[in-house]
Design a protein that fits this description.
With 393 residues, the protein is mainly α. The protein has 15 helices and 4 strands.
Length: 393
């Protein structure tokens, strides 16, 4: 009948009531799978935190310190924020002659050397720019490198070649880095090429050439300090016979710098040697055999086949040594004490001297200046040299 609701059958006792299915968000299998995925991050996290505390925090604090002035007071110390005054002190203030050097007057020969070297550098940069596609970032990067290179060349010539000039710790560090690394690479490549030949006794010399690298830098510095002593050193009889007894060749500024570079050369040439020897022995023999069949001589094979094959390895080892050489400290500190005067003082030794005199702000500014220089040189080297050699292989 209309208006009467339909009669429903009553549910009998014992019938199960259908309950809505409840969704469990985390099952045991899901929890185990999530824990397995996060195990790597959990195990690595303590090491990451330790690295952040021991490296990032000192880096940021030293940056703040380079922008501040540290003042000891009764019962403690006081730090005043002074902005860029510490950097201004290095570039234009009382530490300018110590940091940059004394600017001398250039003659005709000095200007000629500057023009010739600048022209060579600009030609090399132009050739590097033409090897790849032109872009705004690439042109801007090469322009920055060219301007910085010209300024560095101008500073080096005005403080080294010019009359009345005296190089500061920045230019002295450049001499240690570029001059020392170039000599280490050439000597290491020569020794590696000799030991790669089938010569008698090559295994013995491979071991002997590695010994200097096993000695601590302080030990090497004290060794060369003894060797350069013409009064009581092992070469004193020879110096006496030649008429140079009691004459120290480290009293001359460039003699002292050369002594530091020789000590650094003796210690770090084995690093170049072992890496270049491994590269020479792992090169492919087929191109060399084909060149011999075509009548090429040893020099042609070495210049056109061997060097291109070991180019990426050689570029990498040079980059490592460039970065490491900027931190030279033990050799000038122990061998010459930075003297005569400040002639052999590197940037790291300069920062150490300022730190010992409690000028922590200027010391941090010198350290950050070194960081900027190393970063710029490393990036420029990778973009201009290392990447080209790697892509050309």
């Amino acid at each position: 009948m209309r208006g009467i609701p339909p009669v429903t059958t009553p549910q009998r006792r014992g019938d199960a009531v259908a309950a809505p299915a409840r969704r469990i968000p985390w099952s045991r299998e899901a929890l185990v799978s999530w824990a397995d995925r996060q195990a790597g991050a959990v195990l690595v996290l303590p090491a990451v935190l330790v690295i952040l505390v021991l490296s990032i925090f000192p880096l940021l604090f030293s940056l703040y310190l380079s922008l501040s002035r540290f003042q000891p007071v009764a019962g403690g110390f006081r730090i005043h924020f002074v902005g860029l005054l510490n950097y201004r002190k290095l570039l234009l203030g009382s530490e300018q002659e110590h940091f940059l050097g004394r600017i001398g007057e250039l003659g005709f020969g000095g200007w000629l050397a500057f023009v010739v070297l600048a022209a060579i550098g600009l030609v090399l940069l132009w050739r590097s720019l033409r090897t790849g596609p032109l872009s705004v970032s690439r042109i801007a990067g090469h322009t920055v490198v060219a301007v910085a290179g010209l300024l560095a060349l101008w500073l080096a010539i005005r403080t080294v070649v010019a009359t009345g000039g005296r190089p500061g710790t920045l230019v002295v560090t450049w001499a240690y880095v570029f001059g020392g690394v170039a000599l280490q690479f050439l000597v290491g490549l020569l020794l590696a090429a000799l030991c790669a030949q089938q010569l008698p006794g090559r295994r013995f010399f491979r071991v002997v050439f590695l010994l200097p690298m096993m000695i601590t830098p302080v030990g090497v510095a004290y060794t060369f300090r003894m060797l350069t002593d013409t009064g009581k050193g092992p070469f004193a009889p020879l110096a006496n016979w030649l008429g140079y007894a009691n004459v120290s060749w480290v009293n001359d500024p460039w003699g002292a710098r050369i002594a530091v570079m020789i000590g650094d050369l003796w210690q770090w040439t084995p690093f170049m040697f072992i890496v270049l020897l491994a590269a020479l022995e792992s090169q492919s023999p087929e191109p060399i055999e084909a060149a011999i069949v075509d009548g090429a001589n040893r020099w042609q094979i070495f210049w056109h086949i061997t060097l291109p094959q070991i180019g990426p390895v050689a570029s990498t080892v040079i980059l490592i040594r460039l970065i490491e050489a900027f931190k030279i400290f033990d050799m000038p500190n122990v061998l010459t004490g930075g003297g005569p005067g400040t002639a052999t003082e590197s940037l790291t030794l300069h920062a150490y001297v300022l730190w010992r005199s409690l000028d922590y702000g200027t010391s941090a500014a010198v350290a950050y200046s070194l960081l900027f220089v190393v970063t710029f040189v490393g990036i420029a080297y990778v973009r201009l040299v290392h990447r080209r050699l790697t892509e050309a292989l």
